[in-house]
Amino acid sequence: MVAVSRYDFVSIITDEKTKKERYGLSPRINGIDLFDRSDTVITTQEGESLDYLAEKYFNNGRYWWVIAIMNNLSLPVGDFMKGGKKLVIPGNISKIINAYSIKRNEK
Fold it and tell me: Residue 41 has what pLDDT?
């Protein structure tokens, strides 16, 4: 796997309607289009973060954004931290990384 900064895929995004800026993942990819049989669906526990889940499943917390893309999360934080949220954990993160790299190069 290629080493990347944990924030390489975070950009400042301007909401077209409100013109407010926020941090998010750009470009957007529909994670459901990348789903395959090697993926696992989990239910989060209280206090889990994307960094924690990436460390647990990929042995590298810097790949939190792969989980965010796969689950169409616009920000790396949210109500999943309370627990009880279903998330798809990719079985093959290289597939997500490659799809995202291709989409970024199309910009």
Answer: 92
